[in-house]
Design a protein that fits this description.
Layout lengths: L6 H14 L4 E5 L7 H16 L3 E5 L3 H7 L2 E6 L2 E7 L5 H9 L19 E10 L3 E9 L3 E5 L6 H8 L7 E6 L2 E3 L4 H6 L2 E4 L3 H5 L6 H6 L15 H14 L16 H13 L5 E5 L7 H16 L4 E5 L3 H7 L2 E6 L2 E7 L5 H17 L1
Parallel strand pairs: 1-2, 7-12, 7-13, 10-11, 11-12
Antiparallel strand pairs: 3-4, 5-6, 5-8, 8-9, 13-14
């Protein structure tokens, strides 16, 4: 069933359907948003063959590296207006970002202040196993640290994320929060232990799209917004909604508009705000900037870095976006075929080396 497929598999199915129709003009709207680099390479080979056969491609994307790689011409649209139309070879990356966002963005290399000290452990996993998904997973996240977990599609990274939040129940292994062993068998167990999870698909897993923005922001933290009579406190709710709209720079006039009215980046900020409202000790983010523009991506990374710098929360970013993991995670695990195959500090290697290691692990497994 299509609904049982992952976001990436649904994306591949949609692309295949369009190609099979033998269209002379194919419009691809964010076709690579859930694809791994290996799958993107395959898609680009198909696109180039279609071009050679006389088809035209309208490739809509916010991923600048892909635009530079595949496009002959580009048009930048911002706030409903065309900003510039130019040959791809005539512009550099920083100018492209400026045209898209209207601001200069330079994302530096993250190195938490606590790395040189001996910060306390906030979240620890020992020999966690889930049949047909992953086995013998062990890691630790300390105060002030952002842990990155990366790997190709099918590596077991999403199953691991869902197990840590109780959507799947581990067959064996142990989980510790602030040194105390906890049982995580359901999402309710995770919430009781202040573990929050931002899922990979905000549209089907993260948001109530037809509900107001405000409802989405407070739904996970509703117990703290009650009166002494256990009824909803309208004043507290209004204050909480206003707080997160302000702190996360969500572009909405108030919390009354439906969630579907927001852009992808602002929707993602709503999902993030929903979980920050529970004041989590552990924040797990699965593909946190999937399908968002470069400006929102920078904003989300800045928010996560700020949270980490407080030193009282463990943050785990699970992503196949190499630049995202490398720039924002002080500690990186490579997972392949359900097992951890690499463990690095982000200072140990550059983005190209990290990408090569991920691919090498898969080749090594395929040749075994």
């Amino acid at each position: 069933m299509l609904e049982d497929l992952s976001v990436a598999d649904k994306q591949l199915a949609a692309i295949a359907r369009a190609i099979l129709n033998n269209a002379r003009l194919i419009i691809m709207d964010e076709p690579t948003s859930a694809l791994t680099r290996k799958e993107v390479d395959k898609l680009f080979r198909v696109i180039k063959k279609l071009q050679a056969d006389g088809s035209s491609i309208l490739f809509i994307s916010h991923k600048l590296d892909e635009v530079f790689e595949i496009a002959d011409m580009f048009t930048v649209i911002r706030n409903g207006k065309i900003i510039v139309t130019e040959k791809a070879e005539s512009i550099d990356n920083s100018s492209f970002i400026y045209y898209m966002t209207g601001r200069r963005i330079e994302e530096d290399f993250y190195r938490p202040e606590t790395m040189d000290a001996a910060p306390a452990s906030i979240f620890k996993v020992e020999k966690l196993c889930l049949e047909n998904a992953f086995e013998d997973i062990s890691f630790e996240v300390s105060a002030g640290e952002i842990l990155g977990i990366t790997g190709l599609l099918g590596s077991g990274r999403t199953e691991l994320a869902k197990t840590l939040f109780g959507l799947f129940t581990a067959d064996s292994g142990s989980i510790y929060v602030e040194g105390s062993k906890v049982e995580i068998k359901t999402p309710h167990d995770a919430l009781l232990n202040k573990i929050a999870y931002v899922p990979e698909d905000r549209l089907t897993e993260g948001l109530f799209l037809t509900q107001p923005i405000g409802n989405n922001l407070v739904v996970s933290n509703i117990d703290s917004l009650l009166t002494n009579w256990k009824t909803l406190d309208a004043g507290k709710i209004k204050g909480s909604v206003a707080r997160w709209i302000s702190e996360l720079s969500i572009k909405a006039k108030d919390g009354e508009d439906p969630a579907y009215s927001l852009s992808g980046g602002n929707q993602q900020k709503v999902v993030l705000g929903r979980w920050l409202g529970i004041e989590p000790k552990v924040l797990i983010l699965n593909l946190p900037t999937l399908g968002v523009d470069i400006g929102s991506k920078f904003d989300i990374h800045t928010i996560l870095r700020g949270l980490s710098s407080r030193g009282d929360i463990a943050i785990i970013i699970i992503s196949d976006d190499i630049a995202e993991v490398h720039k924002n995670c002080s500690h990186i695990l490579i997972i392949d075929r359900g097992r951890i195959k690499g463990d690095y500090a982000n200072t140990d290697l550059d983005e190209h080396q990290l990408a090569a290691l991920i691919m090498d692990e898969r080749k090594e497994a395929e040749n075994a």
